[in-house]
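User: Sequence in, structure out. Go.
Assistant: Echoing your sequence, followed by the structure tokens.
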Amino acid sequence: MAMLSSRPLLKRAKTVNTDRRIKTKGKQSQNDQTRITINTSHANSSFKALSNCFKYLGNGWHEERWDILYVKSCDIYWHEKSLTSRERFIQGKVNKFPGMKEIVCKAKFAYLLNRLRSLFPKHFSFYPRTWIALQEMMTEVMKLSPKELNSTTFIVKPDGGSEGRGIFLLQGLKQLEALYFQITEAVVIQKYISNPYLIDGFKFDLRLYAVLTNLNPLETYIFRDGLARFCTVPYQIPNLKNLRQTCMHLTNYSLNKSNPSFVLMNNPHEGSKRTISSVLKNMENLGHSIDIIWFAIEQLVAKTIIAMLPSLKIEFDSWNAIHKVPDNKFSCFHILGFDVILDEDLKPHLLEVNANPSLNIEHERYNKRGISSNVISPVDEYIKCQLIAETLKLVQPSFKASKVKISHNTENIEKTTIQFSNIFPKLSEEYSELRIIERACRIPSKEICIADLDVLFINMTRNYRYGYSCKAINTVHNNGKLLDFDGFYEILLVIARKKFYSDESIIEHIMNMIVK
């Protein structure tokens, strides 16, 4: 598999210094002006992985353990969970975007993806058909023939669930009708991918990681490795007898780790949880093109970020306004977990996005007496320490980065290859930020070109600002430079009628989407 360039990455450290804390008060020393400080007081379960990374990053990186609510600013703040309204950041970067957790909650996320899928079905076909409302789903599935309905499997997921809790499969009209009486919380219902690609007869999914480093301009990177999580019961096509076999159908580590068949190896490239690179190498040996698979995965991640971007910008701007954050004094980055499954044709399907993917590198192990203890998981340490170290180097302050030397202690690192592949701004160089969706979804065509769009926008802006619109356009919200909602709505309809003039159903979809 082709990589970008060589770079040393973290190898398992023999010892971990968990008490390396800086508690200097008073005036800043000269070293404070060049060292990069990371506040880990809220890192929680990811603290051990972060501590291991400091050994690789070198002496220029320093850990702060002050409570961020009361003490001086740091360059980077590391949170395990989402931000709350209590946090006050003087400056620096925090590893969470405000509102991300709410955006990727299953119902909200399904709404965002369904909206774009209704507009551009071919480009968002990677997301399985997902319903938020049970009545909507019933109306749609009742159009299927009895044979199709009985052979289609659905998976029900709690809106705010995690680690596989509350997930179950159902099949057939009787089970669908019974769902009305089973539901006690908000759920989404998704069409189950019943033809997964198997390795040695077992189903697996891919936990991929993307790092969002900026919204404007958009900057996103995908980690070129990750975790392949295997079921612990050989796969069978879903039927009424095996629907409740969670370790056959659900790949969640939290569910499969307690199965006696779960295998944790010292080699990170083997076992029930292993590296994605080892899985892809196995597939490459069977004659499959890894480059094609990675390209499809990158497209999936890029289009998903595009779908989330408007909501993320609103949340970020609202946070800054509420907390009265000065311009350029506070910024965010975010590690996202993408759960992807390959079907038998090697097409990737997005199952969900996790706002707080686990960065814990420990595994719970039971001895013969049934007593549990936490031990280092080789595969988690191998992947997550690389991910964190490379992410920190991506977001380090540029004015300090040139003064910090990376450690080259061969006892703690091994030679390998850089693991980040750029998605944006690679795409941003191709087209401006305001045309991301326009070109990603290929709005320009023989019916309407880029020049047409530019002329349309100019004319519509002129009309709405000075012509037939009598509304107060020049308000504090747009400063006389932007269209109001009615103008935006009309532009979309003009584009839709030009591009899809022969298909009224698509135009109707667009109108319904905007109204909703």
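User: And one key feature?
Assistant: The longest strand covers residues 202-215.
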